[in-house]
Design brief:
The complex is a heterodimer of chains A (346) and B (182).
Chain A lengths: L2 H36 L15 H11 L10 H17 L7 E6 L2 E5 L7 H22 L3 H32 L4 H7 L4 E2 L2 E2 L2 H4 L1 H14 L11 H4 L9 H26 L14 H27 L7 H30 L1
Antiparallel strand pairs in A: 1-2, 3-4
Helix pairs in contact in A: 1-10, 1-11, 2-10, 3-4, 3-10, 4-5, 5-8, 5-12, 8-10, 8-12, 10-11
Chain B lengths: L1 H21 L3 H21 L3 H25 L2 H10 L9 H21 L5 H8 L11 H9 L3 H21 L9
Classes of the chains: A mainly alpha (346), B mainly alpha (182).
Chain lengths: 346, 182
Amino acid sequence: MELIDLLIKIALIIVIFVISLVVAMYSTYAERKIAAFFQDRVGPNRAGPWGILQPLADGGKMFLKEEIIPTNATGFLFIVGPSLAILTACIGSAVIPWGQNLEIGGRVIPLQVTDINVGILYIFGVVSLGVYGIMIGGWASNNKYSLLGAIRAASQNISYEISMGLSIIALLMVTGTLSLGEIAKQQHGFWADGYFSWNVFKQPLGFLLFIVCAFAETNRSPFDLPECETELVGGYHTEYSSMKLGFYLFAEYINMFISSAVMATLYFGGYNFPFMDLIHSPNLVAILGVVALFIKIFMFIFFFMWVRWTLPRFRYDQLMDLGWKTLIPLAIANIVLTGIFMTFFK
Amino acid sequence: MIKVFFYLMAFITLASALVVAAGKNLVRSLFMFFVTLFGLAGLYVLALADFVAVTQIVIYVGGILVLILFAFMLSGKEALNKVSVQADGFISLKNAPALLLAGLFLVIMFNVVFKAQADNLPWVQAAISNQNIMPVNGTGINHIGVNLMTRYLLPFEVISILLMLALVGAAHLSRKPKEDEV
């Protein structure tokens, strides 16, 4: 690889990293504003105009607060927990195609860090690693509420991973590839061969299953049982303070951003937008594609928040029932139906 | 460059595996096993087996290791300490059968490695002469899928039956005893 290619890759990685952090930062602000809107309040409005400096103030507060490590906690693992949580949240962005190739001065710049041919499996692996931060942190705190939260998180993640995997299998049958770049390419435009080209129209049930599982995997309400404050004080992060707590909260927002990006790429056409063939400049299409992808991502993030402030939390046995007795049979039925459809109608 | 990566990965894998086997602290062994699995996944990637690498992470790290951690969390700290006290010394009389087995296995492995001469294996030579090799960017997933469903269908099904036996066994073990059996 040429040196300049390497530099471009590094620059791309840094840009994506910064963007995911900034989006996560402003998701906290958006969450508070949206919650305020849903509850007929004003929301944060003191730091800066309309309160837009609030995330910075929160960050500063988190960094400057006293750091407490409980005496009976397992010191090393207590620190590893939040670090792993934020690490696994960040590495998912490596395989997401953010846009079509840019062409600057005869050099083709792909807007995707790496298009590995097992992209979906990679995402799936990152998701399955996500539970480690919570489990290790909850176990190392040496506190029964933390431990209960960690156990809840682990069993919830394992249960919903199964139906998530099964819903992806039906999608893979349609697309025939594991590479996210290829899947995004297949959904070109909006209308192709007399039917919608986005996968959500080919896999509506699969998408529904996937988004429910995404809520469970990111520990968002109505599935935020691991941090259920009415039963578990604070859940797995009860003993955490200062920026270590901040990392846990931040990891949740990054997870939300990444899973929104994955959903947009897998089911909602990724960087494709309607009538993109009418624009003839490839660079303009690429840039508009990035904008389109981000609009889709923000809509998904809004949907996450909308659900959080609308639906009450599940009970734990209801959560398990939904996962094992409803979603898994539905996902298997979806695979069978997809198979039948592909055999007889294509 | 690739050689450096290979030796680095191999060293990490072996060193952490040694800690897993010899360490007295169960929790530390568990987290070292985490490192071992990642080292192995790295070795698979270097062997162009991306699919195996990612699958290993999903199944072993994301599934089996989480379940082991689960068992740790649900058992008290005293029970864990008792286990770590029992394990006295890596090489001792109590471990003699295990040592014997491991030693014999090592001898067999060395024998195979030295006799086989990996560079001159007939099927490797045949594959190279037939141009039946995988490019760096190639994907082996299609071949894996097709071969699993055709050539290796019987072993595939046998494994699935084995897994079902394990499932039935687990369901039986976790079943509540009937009223009259208590």
